[in-house]
Amino acid sequence: MIAKIHIIFKDGVLDPQGKAVHNTLKNLGYNEVSEIQMGKYLELKLDGVSREEAENRVAEMCEKLFANTVIESYRFTLETAE
Amino acid sequence: MKCGVVVFPGSNCDHDCFHILKHVFKLDTEWIWHKGDVDLSQFDLIVLPGGYSYGDYLRAGAIAQFSSIMKEVVRFANSGRMVLGICNGFQVLLEAGLLPGALIQNHTQKFICKTVTVRVENIFTPFSSEYIKKTVLAIPIAHHQGSYFIGPDGLSKLIDNQLVVFRYCGPEGEVTDLYNPNGSVDNIAGIVSENKNVMGLMPHPERCADPAWSNLDGQLIFKSAIKSLESGALL
């Protein structure tokens, strides 16, 4: 199973990288973009766990290590490995 | 009195801290390697130094919080003993949950390395008791992830309980956006825990505490800590 995890800043937390990239995009003429949120993406390969177990354990990993929930939120999907 | 300086892979201000404690204040000071089960009960003050523990991978302090020594440091802190986290040490204390809030990238997007002015906001802590309130100190900062963040509720709690010890300010003590080098919420540069036995700050007092140098503005942080320990009472 593959867990695909996205981590981004919560609303109200300044994202200076996103801001800088957004400014560049505006300079390039992409004015339709109103906001950019930069974050982290992780892919985990999981072995020997059920979907339900994986759901719980990946959430736990996000809470404990991958995200700092003071400033970041996370979401993930589980996909069957091919 | 015995002090310990924790060394993580990537710590790089550990020698400065060790030097100030051991050679300037003549205290019994030991290195504490991050691995292994060190009994911290023999120590009175633990310092988490600046640097880039574990390369700042994931987030500054994110990996260090789970190193084996941190379990002991958390236990040490929760038993009311004194812990000082400077720069990366502050980041580790926040990640470990010993202090509230988080440190994010500077709003300028740049690594900032310069001497800034900070105002002493609370002298009723074991780390600042030797200062005079509202004194303006010149202390170096050197960080990329030094912008202190805390939500509105957390900020009110910090302010109501007088847990903010240092704020970035102007030369006359003006706490304004103009003198906020990194975008920290409410210009916060350093805070203490509710029990006041754990302090974290981004500025580097160990870089201005040796009489061989011209700036001694950071010295009273160490003097305050020593005095508190000598008197045997946390303020």
Mind explaining what this structure looks like?
The complex is a heterodimer of chains A (about 80) and B (about 240). Chain A is of the alpha+beta class. In chain A, about 35% of the residues lie in helices and about 30% in strands. Chain A is built from two helices and three strands; from the N terminus they run E-H-E-H-E. Chain A has helices at about 15-25, 50-65, and strands at about 1-10, 40-45, 70-80. Chain A starts with a strand and ends with a strand. Chain B is α/β, with parallel strands linked by helices. Chain B has one domain (about 1-230): Class I glutamine amidotransferase (GATase) domain (Rossmann fold), CATH 3.40.50. Chain B is built from five helices and eleven strands. Chain B has helices spanning about 15-25, 70-80, 90-95, 150-160, 220-230; strands at about 1-5, 30-35, 45-50, 80-85, 100-105, 110-120, 135-145, 145-150, 165-170, 190, 200. Chain B has a nine-stranded mixed sheet, sandwiched between helices. In chain B, helix 2 (about 70-80) links the parallel strand 3 and strand 4. The model of chain B has no long low-confidence stretch (mean pLDDT about 95). The interface between A and B is medium-sized, with 13 and 20 residues.
Give the structure's gist in a few sentences.
Chain A is of the alpha+beta class and 82 residues long.
